[in-house]
Write a structure and sequence with these properties.
The chain is 44% helix and 15% strand. By secondary structure, the chain is of the alpha/beta class. It has a seven-stranded parallel sheet, sandwiched between helices. Strands 16-15-14-17-18-19-20 form a seven-stranded parallel sheet, sandwiched between helices. A six-stranded parallel sheet has the order 10-9-8-11-12-13, with helices on both faces. Helix 25 packs parallel to helix 26.
């Protein structure tokens, strides 16, 4: 995960880390105490303050409410009871803050409390961190507040968040909400996962706990610890429970722990569904009973449908030894990352939730055991969370590093998992976080967003009209160019320009051809150097001639420099000397394919091809060559990939072709597969058969990294990667007979297969993401040096050379 830098460092700090901690006086502004109203925000606030106090920081906490461990210790001040009218609460908080005296930094956990009492208490110019626990306005809208009230809350939030020196979110999902919904700069947002009280929440004796709570010892128990409001998805859980209860043998019980305004409606719904006898509304419980309910349960359910910042209840359950079934929404997938995928279901899907709980109850799909649950929770200690906050506080108050990292915005028009997008995800994940921080702006939502978030890469979606985003490359220039798409693209450039001026990057890095055009214009308007990453050959066999002329001319005018994935790609741009660099795409070299069968040449082979289904990719050439090489026998062909960008007819023609060739029963179409490594593990030989020069041929390197013998078209990038007869075989593009001859060589010579596979693995090692990232970072530094006329004074060379 990249640690983002605070925006405005202030004041000197002491020389040692201990002195820095002792010298900082930090004011924590919360909403209420956990004793007043249990809930994720209030528990998080109390646990964070306690952990910071244990770390030795000088903190003062202010909330409304009653009770609290911190009050007894002297660092927590209660401004007034929580049931006072809001104006009274704000006034009392203002008075309390004024009485505390001077502080070095304010950390606010609620926008309204920061906006009025904090600013009016003489702290307007004090260094400020704001915790974003969720969109207040959107939560109010879901709770039924008026549009005017929601708008007013959004305006308050927007002012608070955009004036903060640094912001903290608990998950990458909420970082995206903060960046997209409120327009804050991504560089000001740090993702700091919460901790869990591992001493309080720990496994216990289930039977003894059940006896205390009045639960049948043999009952199958599901518990859901939630505030009873609509966004928690408890109505979905009741619907799923009703379906589970229809066929569930033996005693079973669903326990809803918590209170809230939706309780009457939920109780009524349980009665309507006929499950009120097996559903217990436990209401608000004390700390000891909360832990006991986790221990008593067989499974904990978190069925949220929206605005789930992290899901602290999931960690509490796991720390207690109880597995979780949760919605794939917000920060919940991040909280459960590294555990079984069976723990996640789609939000709001009654059928999937009912089926998952039924399978768990019947033991068909068991969840992780108590030891695995506890081990996962132990990764989230409050001591580590407090250390990360202390580092952030020091930076915001004046201890920011003298050489902050380079800030790069990466642009892409698509969020689908195609080769270029996967390559960029690998590249950004391998970047040295001390040297560069990146933020990705995509023109659509899609699978790439989740992939980037999983890698800890900041991402936002700035939607583009489909008329422009889906514009075929055949209409990029010429008489058929739709005027509506042109107008829409112009509007998008204007919106992107405004966004770049807010974000203020040091460099714009475009990842797709469309992004190069609109991003290059926006960067030029903003005065920010742009780097084009070109992954397509700009030739008449790929683009219409007017589009070729347009792109080649734009490549001379818009970017400060160009990176191409191969010499073939770079030469197609016809750039002046020195304007472009060749940097290959990074490849996951840890994939493992099928083991070459050595001298066992009689064993039937599995020959495969991986790539988007498109005429120029040559799947038809591969299938014809396979049929010619193996007209009969047990050999099989596997085609991995799906059609994109309106090329569905080609996929249908391939299915018809295999029947025409008489090999349909020996050809498997696997469709799109995200896990290329598992597909390569089924192959004995990998074929690349593009009929026009491939810009790079990422799958070729992946096959070599997997130890597979590869046969590739002898043009473009693959011809630069493979040395024919040494670490792979080459075949003329589109030549069915030549490809068939190479397949026949491999089928009859097991030693050749093994030799090529071993050599290919050694070659692929040079395409490791870390090695490629260092080369790209060199280009970044060269671009900035040229743009400024001197070495950037705040940059430093990356490590690992």
């Amino acid at each position: 995960m990249h640690q983002l830098s605070p925006r405005r460092p202030r004041g000197p700090l002491a020389s040692s880390q201990d002195d820095e901690r002792a010298g900082l006086r930090i004011l924590q502004l919360g909403l209420e105490t956990p004793d007043t109203r249990p809930g994720g925000l209030n528990r998080y606030f109390a646990d964070l303050c306690s952990a910071l106090d244990d770390l030795g920081l000088d903190i003062r906490a202010v909330t409304a409410g009653t009770g609290s461990r911190g009050v007894a210790l002297g660092w927590w001040t209660l401004s007034c009871p929580a049931d006072r009218p809001l104006p009274v609460r704000l006034l009392e908080q203002w008075r309390t803050i004024r009485g505390i005296g001077g502080v070095d930094l304010v950390d606010s956990h609620f926008a309204l409390g920061d906006c009025l009492p904090g600013w009016l208490s003489g702290l307007r110019r004090t260094a400020r961190v704001v915790h974003f626990h969720g969109p207040w306005a959107d939560e109010s809208r879901l709770a039924g507040s008026s549009p005017l009230a929601c708008w007013a809350k959004w305006r308050i939030e927007r002012v608070v968040y955009r004036r903060a020196d640094a912001l903290v979110v608990l998950s990458h999902a909420f970082r995206r909400v903060l960046v997209e919904r409120y327009g804050v700069s991504p560089w000001d947002v740090s993702v700091l996962s919460p901790g869990v009280d591992l001493q309080r929440f720990h496994p216990g004796e289930r039977l003894a706990v059940r006896e205390r709570l009045g639960v049948h010892p043999d009952s199958w128990v599901a518990v859901s610890v939630r505030r009873l409001v609509p966004r928690m998805g408890l109505d979905v859980l009741l619907e799923a429970w009703a379906r589970l209860a229809q066929d569930a043998p033996g005693p079973f019980e669903l326990v809803l722990v918590g209170d809230g305004p939706a309780r009457p409606a939920l109780e009524k719904r349980a009665a309507e569904l006929g499950v009120n006898a097996s559903v217990r509304f436990a209401g608000r419980v004390n700390d000891a009973d909360l832990v006991d309910w986790y221990r008593a349960a067989d499974v904990s359910v978190v069925p949220s449908v929206a605005l789930e910042g992290f899901g602290l209840v999931a960690l509490e359950s796991l720390a207690s030894g109880t597995p979780v079934v949760a919605s794939r929404v917000g920060g919940l997938p991040e909280a459960l990352r590294g555990m079984s995928d069976s723990m996640l279901v789609e939000p709001g899907d009654v059928n999937q939730l009912a089926e998952r709980l039924t399978r768990v109850r019947m033991g068909v799909e068991p969840l992780p055991d108590a030891d695995a649950c506890r081990a996962h929770a132990e990764r989230y200690s409050w001591a580590a969370v407090a250390e990360r906050h202390a580092d952030l506080y020091r930076g915001v108050a004046g201890g920011a590093p003298q050489s902050p990292p380079l800030r790069v915005v990466v642009l892409g028009h698509t969020a689908q998992l195609s080769g270029g997008e996967l390559a960029m995800a690998r590249l950004l994940g391998a970047m040295d976080g001390d040297a560069v921080v990146t933020h990705v702006i995509l023109a659509e939502d899609g699978p790439l967003v989740g992939l980037l978030e999983q890698a800890g890469i900041s991402v936002e979606v700035l939607p583009m009209d489909e008329r422009s985003r889906h514009l075929p490359r055949t209409k990029v220039a010429g008489r058929e160019l739709p005027i509506g798409a042109v107008i829409s693209a112009g509007g998008y450039v204007e919106r992107l320009t405004r966004r770049l001026r807010t974000v203020r990057p040091d460099l714009v890095h475009t990842n797709t051809l469309k992004a190069a055009l609109y991003g290059g214009v926006a960067a030029r308007v903003c005065g920010v150097p742009a780097l084009w990453h070109v992954r397509d050959r700009i030739e008449d066999d790929y683009l219409p001639r007017p589009a070729v002329r347009l792109v080649r001319h734009a490549a001379r005018v818009l970017p400060s420099a160009v990176i191409a994935n191969s010499t073939s790609t770079l030469s197609s741009l016809h750039l002046p000397p020195g304007r472009g660099s060749v940097v290959p795409s990074p490849v996951d070299v840890h994939v493992r394919g099928g083991v070459a069968r050595g001298v066992d040449a009689d064993a039937p082979l599995t020959v495969g091809m991986v790539g988007r289904l498109a005429p120029w990719k040559g799947q038809d050439v591969f299938l014809r060559a396979f049929a010619r090489t193996f007209p009969c026998g047990a050999e099989t062909a596997v085609v991995v990939g799906s059609a994109m960008f309106g090329e569905g007819e080609f996929e249908a023609s391939l299915r018809a072709l295999v029947n025409e060739l008489g090999v349909g029963h020996r050809v498997e179409f696997r469709g799109f597969r995200a896990d290329v490594g598992s597909e390569l593990a089924r192959f004995d030989v990998l074929v690349h058969a593009s009929v026009i020069p491939e810009p790079f041929g990422q799958v070729v390197v992946e096959g070599m990294a997997a130890g597979l013998p590869v046969v590739a078209a002898a043009a473009g990038g693959p011809a630069e990667v493979i040395t024919d007869g040494v670490d792979g075989l080459l075949s003329p593009p589109g030549d069915v007979a030549a490809l068939a001859r190479q397949l026949r060589r491999l089928a009859t010579d097991g030693a050749l297969r093994r030799r090529l596979g071993d050599a290919g693995r050694r070659t692929a090692n040079g395409y490791r993401p870390e090695a490629v990232a260092r080369r790209v970072l060199d280009v970044y530094e060269d671009v900035l040096r040229h743009d400024r006329g001197q070495p950037p004074p705040r940059r430093h060379r990356h490590r690992g050379r």
